[in-house]
Amino acid sequence: MAIYLDHAATTPIDPQVREEMLPFLSESFGNPSSIHQFGREVRLAIDTARQRIATAIGAQRQEIIFTSGGTEADNTALMGVIAPLRALGKNHLITTEVEHHAVLDACAYLEQMGTEVTYLPVDSTGRVSLEDVKQAIRPDTALVSIMYGNNEVGTIQPIEEIGSYLRQEGILFHTDAVQAFGLEEMNVRTLPVDLVSLSSHKIYGPKGVGALYVRQNVMLHPRFFGGSQERRKRAGTENVPGIIGFGKAAMLAVSSRMEERSHLLELRKAFLEALEKKEIEFVVNGNQQYFLPHILNISFPGTHTETMLMNLDIEGIACASGSACTSGTLSVSHVLKAMKLPERLMHSAIRFSFGKGNTKEQVIQTAETIARIVQRIIASDREKRRV
Asked: Where do you find CATH 3.90.1150.10 in the chain?
């Protein structure tokens, strides 16, 4: 039986979410911009979904902009904020070396357009320091973008401390909360952030839909043009079924958050305990005090990531080398590089990410399978060296 341990890449759609979406794939097909009853019915459903997502993070309904996913939300936040502030003489952006490529690649594009970007280092656990943020601030700093929790190693950043400082300085703060949403308590009325990126398919909702929280009075230029949708911040007919599903998924995630966290932490503990009972060497990467409960990045010295992943896949176990957006490549994770891990750890790291469908039996079985594979690989390498 296959074991899926790649929930940081994507999650299966919750049956309740699918059920909520079905009418909008058939009879409720109206365009939400139409003023007749077919359109009004769909518009009401979108408004309900928007309110559900707003409620999930303590926002107001009008502060939520729907996007095609977390990547577009990140791009919109960075480019949409820099555009109006550049005209005011603020053309400096601060981020970290461990961001998702949705942020890093957007920063690279902005650099080509003349924006200056500072990439902050992290410590060996993947955490950025408030002092480094303070030292990087300049009179022309427009925006700071630091992810809430890392998608590869699970490290949670000191968002509240950084945000509090930036608010005092009058500098806008964006956080990519794609992995943290639904698992970490998040209330933008008290959390000092100005923009937050969210994604549906990380919380058992459909793919192809996300959202960007934009605090009221924050200037944001649109990236799409051609319609009045999303208060003229994101033109184009809405992905209605996706939005409806996202709204339901957000509501379910918030209502079951504590139960889900407890389950995930139990899985994490059981997995590590099972590995410790085996006679293999392994190292947990990331911060062991501040971490997302569902992500566990582990190196198995003496092996290679790609070899381990192929062997685990043959055994029916799905996991990853890092971000699903880059794990198809053979390059070493930019996150692990930024953490300055030893070569033997960088080249043998695997990300396991748990979900509500996983059981303790599954993670224990995975640990036993890993031990067999590691022992086989190391024994084979020893034999080759003898020859």
From this structure: 3-10+257-386
Domain range 15-255, CATH class: alpha beta
How does pLDDT run across 122-165, given as a tens digit for each residue? 999 999 999 999 999 999 999 999 999 999 999 999 999 999 99
What DSSP line would sit under 321-381, residue for residue? SS-TTTTTS-SPPHHHHHTT--HHHHTTEEEEE--TT--HHHHHHHHHHHHHHHHHHHHHH
pLDDT at residue 382 in the model? 77
Give dist(CA 312, CA 122) in Å, integer.
Answer: 31
Q: Strand 210-214 vs strand 64-67: parallel, antiparallel, or unpaired? A: antiparallel
Close Cβ partners of 68 (under 8 Å, ≥ 6 residues apart): 208, 209, 210, 239
Alpha helices by DSSP H, listed for the chain, are 15-21, 37-57, 70-86, 101-112, 130-136, 159-169, 229-232, 240-255, 257-276, 305-314, 334-338, 343-346, 360-386
In total, the chain counts a number of residues equal to 387
Instruction: Give 267-299 pLDDT, tens digit per residue.
Output: 999 999 999 999 899 999 999 999 999 999 999
Domain with CATH 3.40.640.10 in the chain: 15-255
User: Residue 208 carries which DSSP code?
Assistant: S
Centroid of chain to Cα 333: 16
Binned at pLDDT 50, 70 and 90, residue 1 comes out as: confident
Q: Which amino acid is at 70?
A: G
* Structural tokens at position 1: 């039986």
For residue range 208-246, list pLDDT tens digits in order.
999 999 999 999 999 899 998 998 999 999 999 999 999
Mean pLDDT across 345-352: 97
Instruction: Compute the distance between CA of residue 222 and CA of residue 66 in angstroms, rounded to an integer.
Output: 12
Residues with a catalytic annotation lie at: 325
pTM, full prediction: 0.95
- Which residues fall within 8 angstroms of residue 198, CB to CB, at 6 or more apart? 53, 57, 70, 73, 177, 178, 181, 210, 211, 212, 213, 250
Which CATH fold would you assign to the domain 3-10+257-386?
Answer: Aspartate Aminotransferase, domain 1 (3.90.1150)
What are the phi and psi torsion angles at 65 (to 5°)? -115, 125
| pLDDT over 80 (residue 314) | yes
Q: Which residues contact 367 (CB under 8 A, 6 or more apart)?
A: 271, 274, 275, 277, 278
